Amino acid sequence: MINTIKTDLRIELENILKEKYNQEIPVVVEEPKNADLGDISIPVFSIVKTLRKPLNLVVDEVIDTIKKTKVSENFSAIEKVGGFINISLNRVAFSKKLIKEGQRLDYGSSNLGKGKTIVIDYSSPNIAKPFSVGHLRSTIIGHAIGNILEKLGYKVVRINHLGDFGTQFGKIIYAYLNYGDKEKVEENPIEELVKLYVEFHELAKENPELEDKAREIFKELELGNPEYYKLWEHFREVSLKEYMKVYEMLNVKFDSYDGEAFYNDKMQAVVDELTEKSLLKKDSGAMIVDLGESMPPALIQKSDGSTLYITRDLAALFYRKTTYNFDEVLYVVGNEQKLHFEQLKAVVKELGYEFYQDIHHINFGLVLQDGKKMSTRKGKIVKLEDVLNEASELSLNYINEKNPELENKSEISKKIGVSAVIFNDLKNHRTNDIEFDLADMVNFIGQTGPYLQYTSVRISSVLDTMEFNCEDINYNLFTGNHSFDLIKTIAQYEEVLQRAKEEYSPSVLAKYLLVLASYFNTFYAKEKIMVTDDKERNTKLCLISIIRNILDEGMTLLGMQVIKKM
Fold first, then answer.
1. CA 137 to CA 122: how far, in whole Å?
2. Are 418 and 391 contacting, i.e. CB atoms less than 8 angstroms apart?
3. Predicted pLDDT at 375
4. Rounded to an integer, what is the distance from CA 559 to the centroid of its chain?
5. Do residues 250 and 417 lie in contact, with contact meaning Cβ atoms separated by under 8 Å?
6. Superfamily of segment(s) 410-558
7. Of 448, 529, 443, 449, which is closest to residue 486 (Cα–Cα)?
8. What is the dihedral of CA 241, 129, 367, 365, to 10 degrees?
9. Which pLDDT does position 370 carry in this prediction?
């Protein structure tokens, strides 16, 4: 709402000044860094430079102009401080408008995405391998972005582009057929398939010809060998079954699980089109697309005729464009794949398709532990399922210490633990590396997921015991600074969601929720909520009910679990 007022003020001022001086005069409307100076600030230095008039005259003229605007009905005071004009909002009028808006069930929604479709490619674990911590960031960042987009009216297509294709499956099939134990694989599929894969590599060190045999098996698999295909299909099925346990814990769902193998018969069309448009060039036996001096060429086909990741990604991209007619396609993939997606966009541009501009690499940093990449624990992959269970255990320990009589402790601790892991990631801008410390994550104090959950529970403990009427309110009670700080923060919700979309960063929403929770807790410490006066009590209960709704919905959008007691 404040952004709307600022935008309206800027447009009105620029129009009035243009009419008066017959020239474009840009106006900057911002919020002062010091809230004590007001709610809106206009620096006039650029206007002085354009009009070439003394500063004091320009300030007075702009103030007179502000008073002529329609939006000025929202202001209670306009003051000049040097080269700045500081404006205070009419707190009663603004609060009245905000409280009515905030009670809407769809508060924060917009028509920004109406009629638009966005495809998101995220998570994408490799089958026959454990779901590791390495896939955590892609999974929860992509999921949260999808939720925020849906809130803003977009149709979202969520795709899990499984790593289910490549020479490694020739190795696993060879190992399984020659020294695998079917019963062990059935009992513990992922662990046993990884063991077979590792064993193959150990044997191949002394018997390099095994690599050729694996390549032959994979080639046969590509050509549809029934025995190999049946095994591959089984490995994929048991892997996905294991992954679904983690997705269930994270409450993550997808519209499509079509992985790399799905596009096996769709790559030749890409190669043919590149050939028809004279974009393919032979280089040392391989086929490439020259992308100029700005980046290395895109390798489309190896000298033996096999294709690469970019060939499959191009096939997937065109399939998705045809199938979903997307307005944007997002790839939630780590920073290290930056060049790959730059090449992908460049090839699509070379092919003459304008939608190359709608391809976005949503990059993210590493998961670190003690400053190092978190990928191994005593030589083993760190399974995400184990980490989430450990976080839940820590949460249960905390509950047993603070509230041992709580009902459904086990279920609640899982919601706290998993949400703590999610929030610890999402509160950081996605491009940054994040430090992984479970003890810090599940802390109920500080900038954590449990702190947000606890704030919501705290509000619920008040609201659930009282009835209140939002039609019977004393808006003058919102004029105090700590009350109006809350009002202004509530008013930012829709703008925060839109900025989270613009930056494709859930951290924008996560940080906002921390600020909102902090302002509430300050308000709660300074104000007595359960007062005897009906109107005052209604006012305060209505305000905190809106805060709880935003906290609960915001946490849900991030993929966290909302709880009522803890």
1. 9
2. yes
3. 54
4. 10
5. no
6. Isoleucyl-tRNA Synthetase; Domain 1 (1.10.730.10)
7. 529
8. -90
9. 72
